[in-house]
Design brief:
- By secondary structure, the protein is α+β, with helices and mostly antiparallel strands.
- The protein has one domain: Roll (CBS-domain).
- About 45% of the residues lie in helices and about 20% in strands.
- The strands form two sheets. It has a four-stranded mixed sheet with strand order 1-2-3-4.
- Strand 5 (about 105-110) and strand 6 (about 115-120) form a beta hairpin.
Length: about 150
């Protein structure tokens, strides 16, 4: 079974990030430009402080009557202490179980305290489909006598 390490190896290694003092508006603009649903929040030393998702925006800005142009990312982000994370050895099944149970679409990946990247529900589903298609192809070849 594929692991988080396999997903990270197949992805672009660049992780979009924003500073905790940036405005939520700037974070939303970045997410729109990059066509992503979440952005990591890193301080000036590059240390992870949290993650900001579209869901954070919907629940903590719109529903509370705040404005994205006047609110700092740090005010609404999910802090590092509350993030759901995985490590490179977790399986795709582990990720699906966690994402489903915790209702999250993005999982930061850490090896010990070292931040490696982020995987999304789309990354996981794509990898699972690829894995299943490979199995289907192998079974088809076996049934059709290709290996006979």
């Amino acid at each position: 079974m594929k692991t988080v390490r396999d997903i990270l190896a197949a992805k672009d290694q660049a992780v979009c990030s924003i500073h905790p003092r940036a405005t939520v508006f700037d974070a939303l603009k970045l997410m729109s430009e990059m066509e992503i649903g979440a952005v990591m929040v890193l301080d000036e030393t590059g240390e992870v402080r949290g993650i900001l998702s579209e869901r954070d925006y919907a629940r903590k800005i719109r529903l509370q009557g705040k404005t994205s142009r006047e609110t700092a990312v740090a005010e609404i982000m999910t802090s590092v202490e509350h993030m759901h994370t995985v490590n490179p050895t977790n399986t795709l099944e582990d990720c699906m179980v966690l994402m489903t149970a915790k209702h999250v679409r993005h999982l930061p990946v850490f090896e010990g305290s070292r931040f490696l990247g982020v995987i999304s529900i789309g990354d996981v589903v794509k990898a699972i489909i690829s894995e299943k298609q490979s199995l289907i192809d192998q079974l088809h070849d076996y049934i059709s006598g290709k290996f006979g």
